[in-house]
Write a structure and sequence with these properties.
Layout lengths: L1 E5 L10 E6 L12 E6 L2 E7 L14 H10 L4 E10 L9 E2 L3 E4 L27 H14 L3 E2 L3 E4 L8 H10 L3 E3 L5 H8 L2 E11 L12 H24 L3
Parallel strand pairs: 1-4, 1-5, 5-11, 6-8, 7-9, 9-10
Antiparallel strand pairs: 2-3, 3-4, 5-10, 6-11
Helix pairs in contact: 1-4, 2-5
The chain binds hypoxanthine.
Length: about 250
């Protein structure tokens, strides 16, 4: 089954014909919200609102382990994770969609593994290519057939937040090779890998990062909210197409 993790601006999926909601308990606590099971175009999908149904859980308080564990427990094999980002490089316009192919993790203080020692054997998972190649290709093919422009590569810098960055921090991320910055990409991607679940991020560019472009003087939070609303129309169409073309 395919899961969609909705981020800011996507707390529910309008095209999802909801069948049932289920609150799942996990060894790591409760997920951000009840899992919403339903169908899109006759195919089973499950939706999870990363920041909770009422968008009240900030990025550093999301229980990523509970979220991923709950999805895996319900038989999820693939995840489309929607996440808003700021543009670090000049290659994206506000409102663009990007399927990153790489990430750099700058987060701190998050529970970031299921392999936490105790009486378990030490485990190291391969994470060379953090996003699942096959699922990325499926998304890119769906975007092409639906006529939705999507950048087919990018490097996602995951930061802790919830504050936005300084201009110098964005300069550093740029020098490191990051092309976008967001607050929720990690440990989500790594936890999916640990569970053997295919995972891609659909990144929505909602602002120029601090010190860049329109955000030379400040990042407009009001601007972000407005962009999110319009960009999510494209995201929903892309999700619908990916589901429709599922093998
Ligand atoms: N920085 C960090 N996270 C973000 C941004 C940003 O500029 N925009 C959306 N999420």
């Amino acid at each position: 089954m395919l899961a969609i993790i909705g981020g800011s601006g996507l707390t529910r999926l309008s095209t999802l014909a909801v069948a049932r909601r289920e609150v799942i308990r996990t060894p790591y606590g409760e997920p951000s919200s009840a899992l919403v099971f339903g169908q899109i175009g006759g195919r089973d999908v499950v939706f999870l609102a990363r920041h909770g149904q009422g968008h009240t859980i900030p990025p550093h308080r999301v229980n990523y382990r509970a979220n991923l564990w709950a999805l895996k427990k319900c038989g999820v094999a693939s995840i489309l994770a929607v996440a808003s980002v700021g543009a670090v490089g000049g290659e994206y316009a506000v409102g663009d969609l990007v399927l990153p192919h790489q990430l750099i993790d700058y987060t701190t203080g998050r529970e970031n593994t299921f392999f936490d020692g105790g009486d378990r054997e030490v485990v190291h998972v391969d994470f060379t290519h953090p996003y699942t190649a096959q699922l990325r290709q499926r998304c890119l093919a769906a975007a092409r057939s639906a006529g939705i422009p999507v950048h087919d590569a990018g490097v996602y810098a995951a930061v802790s937040g919830p504050r936005l960055e300084t201009a110098a921090e964005i300069d550093r991320l740029g020098r490191d090779g990051a092309t976008m910055v967001g607050m929720t990409g990690m440990p989500e991607a790594a936890l999916a890998r640990e569970l053997g679940v295919a995972y891609v991020t659909i990144a929505v560019v909602v602002n120029h990062a601090a010190g860049r472009g329109d955000s030379a003087l400040a990042v407009s939070v009001e601007g972000i909210v407005a962009v999110l609303e319009t960009a999510m129309v494209k995201v929903r169409s892309l999700i619908d197409q990916v589901v429709k073309e599922a093998p």
